[in-house]
């Protein structure tokens, strides 16, 4: 795969993956086309050498792996990790709000959202709906309105003269989006609107009752190339669907000789503590069933994990927010993340292998260390390293606007990380 087609596939993936459920479904479809076999955690597994498999939990997390030609006991496993969730606004369970002829819904802030950019955007709605069908069975289905259905209007500057100098946002009162106009006596339940959308997208589904939902608002503007020379990618959810896409493509393009695995967890943005999050048992369970619990420690001792999660690129208007020797630049290569307080799991050994592979391929890399007077974020890297005891590297593509409704990265960095990760998944010795 070359640079242009890689980015076009990335743009398509970003634009059609408004939620973790849609992202996971899209990754599964790509794996299906490549001949990977879906596994069910409720059933016995009969894994064969040289075959690709994947397993999904909660519809929002996925582990995909290739068993390789060599046994994991002999070769270890080349692992990569990312996360499917992004900061957003989620609809509350009883969301209806009717004020002055407007029909609004209450929202809950998910993760560390940069709230200001959510105002004055064309918003759509997507996620998972759980329903009772006419046969009395509980079913899940995905919905995506795909068109502007909501708007969070800013207060006019004439009514808030300090808006440009002293604006704060109250998540409870300032964020409920406007969905439509409705008379004061309107009794339309949100679930009625949702049921109509389910019927439109899934006409075969015989709905008895909507039992629940997990829905997120998102900006309908699709992912695109930008910049006078198309040197940038702008999109929602670059953090961290970019890494999910890179991981899937690398797994598919790797030689297949060595055991290799990709895990994309949900709930990283809120701490990873869930059944399908990195603090949960999902990855450990898959490894136990693949390698046998009695062999896992030996396999892990020969393995390595690359946790791929986007990095903070240097903002040209805020250069002083970076350590002057560790400020990553867009389109200058992926960023090795280092934090000696273990907010990142990188050590000299894991970083050395990444640098060695990059040098062998002739592609660039950078290093990030947060300013000593600032706090440091984290990733699934330290969590996975702590749970499994696996040597881990934290790396990411540099970006701007992290946790905004619209983010920006370079067109070359994702492809570079894909090249290195592909080589890593076929590397003969990783630990």
From TrEMBL:
Needed co-factor(s): Zn(2+)
Keyword Iron: no
EC annotation from Swiss-Prot or TrEMBL: 3.4.11.-
Entry's Gene Ontology molecular function annotations: aminopeptidase activity
Keywords: Aminopeptidase, Hydrolase, Metal-binding, Metalloprotease, Protease, Zinc
InterPro entries referenced in this protein's UniProt entry, alphabetically: Peptidase_M18, Peptidase_M18_dom2
Organism superkingdom: Bacteria
PANTHER family: ASPARTYL AMINOPEPTIDASE (PTHR28570:SF3)
Family in the record: Belongs to the peptidase M18 family.
NCBIfam families: PRK02813.1
Protein name per the record: M18 family aminopeptidase
